[in-house]
Amino acid sequence: MSGTKDSGDQGEALAARYLEKRGYSIISRQWRCLFGELDIVARSPGGVLCFVEVKRRGPGAIAAPREFVDGRKRQRLRRAAGLYMSFHNLDCPARFDVAEVYGERDGGLRVAYLEDAFE
Question: What's the pTM value of the predicted model, to 2 decimals?
Fold first, then answer.
């Protein structure tokens, strides 16, 4: 299990660096609540609050990482995001993004970023 967590943490760190290089400000990582965890909370260069779900898959994966953000997961993310905004007394534009982290056959990693991945 720790290997999976380490792999996920590595993917989240890569996604955070990807965002920072594009002008995003990382506000929070691995924010936990009753509904689950928000992988990354960031502010876009345009000021939008982004709840970023990071999904990492290896080179032999049977589906794209975004396909693992199903309806049940989306509902949990919506609830967690609402709680996060309430907890921090935020009233601002927000969206849900997905950072897909792909493991390459040569051992490298790459990020594909989907803005406004779902409502």
Answer: 0.88
